[in-house]
Amino acid sequence: MAIRELKVCLLGDTGVGKSSIVCRFVQDHFDHNISPTIGASFLTKTVPCGNELHKFLIWDTAGQERFHSLAPMYYRGSAAAVIVYDITKLDSFQTLKKWVKELKEHGPEDIVVAIAGNKNDLGDIREVPMKEAKEFAESIAAIFIETSARNAVNVEELFQKISKQIPPLENPEVDSNESFKLTRQPALSTRRCC
Amino acid sequence: MAFSSASGNPPSGLTDRSGSFFKLIDTFALEIGELKKEMVQTSPTMDKEPVELQGLEGEVSGVYLQSPHCGGVGGERDSGYDSLRRRMSVLDRLSQTHPVWLLLAISEEKANHILLKQPPGVFLVRKSAALQRKVLSVRVKEDQSETPISHFPVRESQYTFSLEGSGISFADLFRLVAFYCISRDVLPFTIKLPEAIASAKTQKELEEVAQLGAGFWDSALCNQRRTSPRPCRPLSRTLSPQRTNRNREVGGSQQRHTTYCDSAPPTLRSHAPPPSFHLERRHSSGPLCFVNPLFLQTHHHHHSEDHSPSHAVKSDSDLEHAEKSSVKPLSSSEGSEQHADKIKLNGKSRPPPPRPPPPRSMPRRRPAPPPPGPPAAATTRPKSMPEAVTVAARQHQSPSRRPAPARPPMGAKHSSLSKTASSPIPVPSNPPPPRPKKPDLEAHRCHIALDDETIAKALSRAKLPPCEPPPAVPADVLLENNARGSSSPNERGRQRLSDMSMSTSSSDSLEYSQSPGFSLGLAPSPSRHLNHQEPVEDSSEEDEDGEEDEEEDYGVGLETDLEMRLRPSFKSRRRRVGVSLSGGSFILPRALKGRFRKVSGMLSSLMTPERRAVKRIAELSRDKSSYFGSLVHDYISFVQENRGCHTSGMDFLQTLRQFMTQMKAYLRQSSELDPPIESLIPEDQIDQVLEKAMHKCVLKPLKSMIEVALHDFQVSSGAWQQLRENLALAKTKRPQELGVDGAVPPDAVAIEKIRHKFLNMRKMYSPEKKVSLLLRVCKLIYTIMQDNSGRMYGADDFLPMLTYVVAQCDMPQLDTEIQYMMELLDPSLLQGEGGYYLTSAYGAMALIKNFQEEQAARVLSSEARNTLHQWHRRRTAQRSAPSVDDFQNYLRVALQEVDTGCTAKTLLVHPYTTTEEVCSLCAYKFKIPNPENYALFLITEDTSQQLAPDTHPQRIKAELHSRPCAQIFHFLYRRVPNLNLCIPAVMQNGNCLQVE
């Protein structure tokens, strides 16, 4: 099976649980043999999808405002972006909208956008109604899911949904391997005058 | 030399030390090859294992004992002929004639067309368009297959090549093919070199053949030779017991080494002290083969499939299917005990892992195990040792290196078994216990073959006597050895072979022996190293440090290796081979150890294919008579002389990156790399290898100049001053003020440590190595953060902390370092972990650079944002392949003045720039006040020719470079006596400085 590396960028306010989601996703199947990580801000996980393997290279970003300007470096080249908000913090949902806008304007063209409302285990202090978030997601054709990193709810599903939206590779480009050898230019154009 | 052995050896032979090891190997290979061929001839019923074995047994003893001078036994042996042949191993023949059989570009139809006219066994290697893989196309006997041509797909795993369905893998295609010329493994029979190649007696003949390229197949040479029967050796010679007599060996260093296998009982031999390897290290082409250890599967196929070419596919369309079906479970029909034994033996030996084990496993490292020498060698060895040491010492200027430790005297081991056994082995005495292994079938199938071992291994495999105890268990081995001691001469020969197989196997194989459950399919995983290797990415990266300095002295003596292995902290990529070989050997009884040592000695004398390829490219880049070499040379000169033509550091780095990318593309397409890199490096590794080579060829010579240039740009733009001010300001901030929330920051000691790492980073020229050091810094920061809290921190915490650390380090130079990495790192690495942390470092630095502004506005300046966007676009766009034309744009032109002599400049000259334009460029560059009096001349050794205004100097250069015999030439800009450009070429001596 071919392994496809997919860069996934995590966006969202600080404290909404971006890295918790990834840690949950990655660590539930923590394999000491394949996790070459320095720290939790960059994690990878490989999941099967159809007849491909998707290796997610997950780039976490710092959510603080002061780091906002660095975000383009993180989302450039991403196949997908997961924008996380905290269902108990309306502000974080507003920030999410800003991210969506920025991605539309500056992000990679065909980036898959997923919206994750985290901390759905704290439903009783919810500030962002699920319906509103869902409608917003639909309006921008984004994946929507509410998750709980703490209780491992929907984390796997989030990434499965992303996987499914990644367009399958076209037939592995049949680059003409009738490899030609580069021959040096012949034709010596030196000529003697007169 | 080490191998000159047997007591009966004439002392004179001992003086010939150099290269004898190689000859030994080649001799083995050659002999094996011939023997195998004979075997095929003599036992047409190949399917019957016993027959084969019997024949082999005889053959084997013959291999080692045969001396050309006593060839009379067989009567039919022509010693002169043989000795000639012996000079060229199968591998040599293959390597030299690859233009004939390595036809990657031809279609299946064409291949079929060629092979149909050939006798069974003749083959070629091509690339299947349908499968996108290389395939070995073989002419098969009509009665063995439905179609006359079978195609066997080649599997390229991370580091090796193997035939689909086989468990034996090889460092490169040549070795693979050489092996199958000797052992059929998964093939229906061994493949055959075309007669003209197989019977060529001289280098020259081979060259003639090679010159024909694919045309060989239609040539008279091919057809005429085919009819002449190959001389075949009588089996009897190999069977004759008296051959085993050591005394028979006379003269001829090759013969001498061959003896070693035969001369000493295995136990003795195993203690052979390391011979000095510095000599053979000079040879870049390794010996033909050792066998690659893991091959459980092979045997199964071997026996269970009745030699049907099950892996062969009739055509490309079937390939895919065949591929699937060819992978059989290991446990498939295990035929006999004999097989099992073999398998154990084979399984026991394991290919060394591609990467060195992480530091923690290093204590296990032993000094390099040199090939064992026969007792008589004792006299020579001591001599060679000091020499080796000095060589090593001379070449190692790296401060981290200590002079190589002296080896134990060679004689010691010969004196007595017990003595040698107890002789100190420079190994940590308390090796760590073996790690638990887990079954890993895939790994078992051994992709990670080590270089050159394969053939010997196959040989040994084939020769294993049916009742041989599994050497997998150390104790058994000892027993076996003892038992052997009393065996008949014939058995001895055989046994030696098996010894050899053991020795060829890597000591890692010990891990197998540790596992009681090891039998067939469920062998303990050889992937221990792999397991280590991956998770400890960062630690393995440590290896990179040392390598920087080491790369140069690759060809140094073994002593260095020895020494490195003794020092756990020493990072050397070389360990890949040596270490992994010795790793694990601690479990072995000493007797066995020796064998392993000798083997790994052999192996460590070889480079990994990657290193070999990089080295080859580096050599090519220094060869100015090659087109590639001249391009690199011209570019480097250009850069050195024309720093001013770049507008910024970034611009400068971009052109460098572009050049490297272009040269990579050129190397992939051109035919200058001989043999083609596809035959040495698996497809998916080629880019990495080329990248590495480019770092070495381009970045290394330019590193200091780049540093200076970047710094100058910074200073002149005022960025340096601003950065320093902002750093100073940021340094006064507490972690909280930089956004750190909760996590514990590194203390002063840790900061100092990090600073030190950053300083080390500056010493590297390779962007990848720099990044690996950066990763270690990040790891350290993470460790500090986590140690104090136990929680996992994401970017919300890490990035502010990194910013804090960068500020505390207060190293403005870090900015150019980051720039260097950002711009020069291989684009394919930008998405991974290295890319991530590099981006973070860049971000942290960007924040600091804009610290004052940020304080004011709390956001980055729009300018900074734009920069980031541009960078993104640029680096992403760069992935598209460059055109080959772009890099041919440098021309070195010398100015000859009567009074000042010669000065030269490298100019940017496009292929279609005319001489006229070059002249005006020269006038400008050389500041010639009266350009109308000057013209461009092409100077060769004995001619000087004025170029017409409408000619194209670049094309002339290309033409000159492409001539078969390289000529020294220069472009010279100088005054013409006559203003008329249309005068006949002025003939005079071009006695100016060599500028090319």
Description:
The complex is a heterodimer of chains A (194) and B (996). With 194 residues, chain A is α/β, with parallel strands linked by helices. Chain A has helices at residues 18-27, 71-75, 90-106, 130-139, 155-165, and strands spanning 2-11, 42-49, 52-60, 80-86, 112-118, 143-146. In chain A, a hairpin with a 2-residue loop joins β2 (42-49) and β3. In chain A, 45% of the residues are buried. Chain B is mostly helical and 996 residues long. Among the domains of chain B are: 86-222, SH2 domain (SHC Adaptor Protein, 2-Layer Sandwich), CATH 3.30.505; 608-699, no CATH class; 718-877, Up-down Bundle (Glutathione S-transferase Yfyf (Class Pi), Chain A, domain 2), CATH 1.20.1050; 884-975, Roll (Ubiquitin-like (UB roll)), CATH 3.10.20.90. In chain B, 51% of the residues lie in helices and 6% in strands. Chain B is built from 45 helices and 10 strands. In chain B, the strands form 2 sheets. Chain B has a 5-stranded antiparallel β-sheet with strand order 1-2-3-4-5. The model of chain B is unreliable at 1-16, 38-84, 225-456, 461-589, 600-605, 877-887 and 979-996 (pLDDT under 50). Chains A and B meet through β1, α1, β3 and α2 of A and α38, α39, α41, α43 and α45 of B.
Q: Class by helix and strand content of chain B?
A: mainly alpha
Rounded mean pLDDT score of chain B:
62
The low-pLDDT segments of chain B are 1-16, 38-84, 225-456, 461-589, 600-605, 877-887, 979-996
Strand share of the residues of chain A?
Answer: 15-25%
DSSP, total strands of chain A: 6
- Mean pLDDT of chain A equals 82
Keywords:
heterodimer; A: 194 residues; alpha/beta; Rossmann fold; six-stranded mixed β-sheet; 27% helix; globular; B: 996 residues; mainly alpha; SHC Adaptor Protein; Glutathione S-transferase Yfyf (Class Pi), Chain A, domain 2; five-stranded antiparallel β-sheet; five-stranded mixed β-sheet; 51% helix; flat; disordered N terminus; membrane (chain A); prenylation (chain A); lipoprotein (chain A); cytoplasmic vesicle (chain A); nucleotide-binding (chain A)
